[in-house]
Amino acid sequence: MKIHTVIVGSLEENCYILEKENKVLVIDPGDEIEKIKKVIGSKEVLGVLITHNHFDHVGALSYFNKKNIYSFNNLEEKEYIIDSFKFDVIFTPGHSIDSISYYFKEENLLFGGDFIFHLSIGRCDLPGGDYNKMLNSIRKIKKYPDNMIIYPGHGIPTTLKNEIENNIYFKEV
Q1: Which pTM value belongs to this model?
Q2: What confidence tier does 162 reach under pLDDT thresholds 50, 70, 90?
Q3: What does the domain layout of the chain look like in residue ranges?
Q4: Which of 158, 125, 120 lies closest to 138, judged by CA?
Q5: What per-residue confidence (pLDDT) applies to 172?
Q6: CATH top class, domain 2-172
């Protein structure tokens, strides 16, 4: 699986485009649809995965087919298969009530939106945020393989091991 990162919008949100066999999944199309479309090109968009509904993660959502949009509103915490893409949905509230992480087990990759950042976590002081729920979500994610690569909604990728060893918020649970 190829992973393309398109940094969009005034908050420099990471939109991810996952590619296999000329087909793609788009994760969090935050803004600047032309930049996103340039990376997608002629590839078939199989789905758009939303980690949470903050404006910086969904600003370009209206440009995609509504039937291909997956979010907290129409997902359960289970495994999904879309064509050759297979992933688990993990509810990870804390930054927002509707925060979802997408875990691609075969590739050992997590796309967590604003759940976990390199050496930090998403803000919990915004409407719908809850620090205690964030700590529960961290407890849940610590059970995954420590070499899992985490692709955040902003900033650079990290590993679960790095966060367990160095992220102050992981020390609280």
Answers
A1: 0.97
A2: very high
A3: 2-172
A4: 120
A5: 84
A6: alpha beta
